[in-house]
Amino acid sequence: MNFELSIQNSIDWIDSNRDRIDTLAENCHWPNPYFSCAWLLAWWKRAEGLKTPVLLIVENEKGQLLGFWPFVERKGILKSKGLWPYIFDEANYFHPIAKRDAIPYLIDGLQGLLKKYTFLWVPLMRKKFWEEFVETKVRGEKLLNITRTPRQTFLIDHTPQEFEEFWSQKMGAKSRKSFRYDQRALADQGEVEFECWETFEDVRAMMPATCVVEVESRKAKEGAGLYTVRGKRAFFFELLPELAKTGKVRLTILRFNEEAIAWQLDLLGDNYVAVHHLSFDEKWKKYSPGRQLLRHNLEMAWNEGRTIDFLPLGFDYKEKLASVKEEVRELHWFKRSIRGWIACRLIRWNMKVRKKMKERKKHIPNPDNPVSKALRGETI
């Protein structure tokens, strides 16, 4: 069967091909929940300074969409231009949605764009996608490149065993005992209720409750909350109900005496769920509300036969629960030119500086540490 690669530079193409993109997203070889139409269109509305989308598209002779990889044009040094992936400030995966046979055409098309652009950046690609399609191409070309393994991703593959058996194997006797104690302690104080919302009307109605939890969460206080960055709350208030229209989102809330104390945002696919966000009210920390809600949702996804993807954000509990741990890959690819060489050197230098800053930050003592207080002459 003949395949044809084309490049589109209009956001209108996404809007007019909603059904085709979402159908491909449901049937692609490697799921990527961030490249559905709702995500792409909602993100474009809030993207500042981005004027030109660069959409790689593969179709067969019947006009069926078999591959889709969205990028945006970004300004670089010395009046150069480069490509960054769509949703670069929010998504956790950036590999394309595509049938397996169409992927080589997308890779060739991406390389071909380096005749026009000075650089391109693709962060957080699944390991098998990198090894089977990208690595050989990058190593075989005489183009400057920077490759890294910035993170790991953790997944739970569904098996025929009962969820309780899986939970027991992963958590261990002491952890299960502590967890049951937290469950009983919270239940003894009042009414505990788990809510699950997936329809457009329900998700839209429950969005204010998520704000109540976010404001009081540790993530928000550390600047890592879902709504912390300016404009993000309006973005998600628009996005999540739209995702619900096509059954691609699940919003769950843990309530105590009708008060929302924890919430979780899951992105849904065909036999797949990605845990995008989980937070809880710090006032209830001693009862482990986040862990209680997570366990409830993991069991629900398990009983539905879904693969559970914790996404490339490393936390100890993810590694403990995961049955699959794999690296994700990052690629900077550069045009063979003076500008490409300069861009490559600058990015390497920036990586080294940021690494040193992180290492230095690790050695800064916590101001609440007893030793720090003693040195300041404060009462411990």
SSE pattern:
EHHHEEEEHEHEHEHHHEEEHEHEHH
Q: How would a crystallographer describe the biggest sheet? A: 13 strands, mixed
Unreliable spans are: none
CATH C-level category of the largest domain: Alpha Beta
* Whole-number tally of structural domains: 2
* Name of the CATH homologous superfamily of the largest domain: Gcn5-related N-acetyltransferase (GNAT)
Q: Describe the global form.
A: globular
CATH architecture classification of the largest domain: 3-Layer(aba) Sandwich
What is the count of DSSP helices, taking H or I runs of 4+ residues? Answer: 13
Strand content: 25-35%
Rounded to the nearest angstrom, the radius of gyration is 23 Å
Kindly name the structural category: alpha+beta
The CATH topology of the largest domain is what?
Aminopeptidase
**Helical content class:** 40-55%
Oligomer description: single chain
Number of DSSP strand runs: 13
Termini separation (Å)?
74 Å
The averaged pLDDT comes out at 92
Explain what you see:
The protein is α+β, with helices and mostly antiparallel strands and 380 residues long. It has 2 domains: 3-150 and 328-362, Gcn5-related N-acetyltransferase (GNAT) (Aminopeptidase), CATH 3.40.630.30; 159-305, Gcn5-related N-acetyltransferase (GNAT) (Aminopeptidase, 3-Layer(aba) Sandwich), CATH 3.40.630.30. 43% of the residues lie in helices and 26% in strands. The protein contains 13 helices and 13 strands. The chain has helices at 11-16, 18-27, 37-46, 103-112, 127-140, 163-189, 200-215, 218-221, 232-245, 289-303, 316-321, 338-362, 370-375; strands at 3-8, 53-60, 65-75, 81-85, 97-98, 119-126, 145-156, 192-197, 249-256, 259-269, 272-280, 307-309, 324-334. Strands 1, 2, 3, 4, 5, 6, 7, 8, 9, 10, 11, 12 and 13 form a 13-stranded mixed β-sheet that branches. The longest helix is centred in the middle third of the chain and has 27 residues, at 163-189. 36% of the residues are buried.
